[in-house]
Amino acid sequence: MRSLVASAALCVAMTGFVAAPATAAPSYDEYVALGDSWAADATFNRSLLTTEFVPPGCAQRISNFARQVAAALSVTSFRDAACAGATTADMTAPQPVERDLYLGTNTPQFDRLTPDTDLVTILIGGNDAGLAAAVRGCITPDPAISPCRQTWIVDGVDRMSQQIAAAEPKVTAAVAGIRQRSPAARILMLDYFEGVAANGGCWPTVPVSPTDADWLAAKLVELDAMLARVAERTGVQLVDTYAGSAGHDACQPPGVRWAEGLVPYTSDPPGPAVPFHPNQLGVDYQARSVLAALAE
Q: What is the pTM of this model?
C-alpha cells in the first residue's frame, strides 16, 4: 500500500487545497471514511481515479474530501471505503460494482473499522431514499412537463418523502454499527450540499422543469433534515455542508458552481464529470467543512 504521506501530498498538490494548521483539531491516529458517491466524490476522470482502497467501479477520487482531511490531520492510518452507489446495506455486505467494463466488489465498508479507529466520517442515505436515482428521471426536453412530480406524487402522497422517512432507521443503525466496532471513535456525519437550485432551477442549462427543480430542492432539504435528526438522536457530530452552499449549485457558471449538471464535463478541473455530483471546488468545500467541524 502506498504511504499515506505520499498519497496525501499528491492530493494537496493536485487540488491546491490549503491544509488547516496542525493545531486546528485534535490529533487522530486511525481515520476511516465511509459513504456513497458524495463521500467518494465520484469522478469519471481516470487520471483522478484511485483504487488504493476500493475497486475502480467505486469511482473514488484521489483528491476527495476524506483524503484532504487525512492529509491535514497527518493521521497515521487512513482507509477510505466510500463507493459510488453505496447504501447503508453496503456497510455490512459486499457491494458489487460494475462500471465502464470494470468488474469488482467493494468489501463491506465496516470491514475497515477497528477498535482502534478514533475518527470516522460518514455520508450516506441518498441512495437509501432513492433521491439520487430520482434526479435522472427529472430530465425533460419540455419545461412545461414535470416528470418527477408526476411520478413521485400520487393521490397527494409524496412517495419520496416516504422513502426518506424509511431511510432514517437505516442510517441510525449504521451509526450504531460504527459505535459497536469502533467505540472510541469520534463520528462526523456529513449532509449533502445544494446541487439543484430552487426558485425554478435553470432549464435548459439543467434540463429540469421549474416545478421539478423546486421539488428536488425541497426533497434534498428533507433528506438533510433526516440526517440532522439522526445525528442529534445518536449524538454524532453533524457537518452541515448544505448551510454554506447557497449560490454554488449546478446552475452557476464554472468557477462558482460546486456541483455539475447534466453535461458530463467540468472545468474544475477540466475533464469528465459525474452529473449532479461535486466537482473539485465542491470537494474542497466538503474538506474545509469537516476540518472546521473538527476544530470546534
A: 0.91
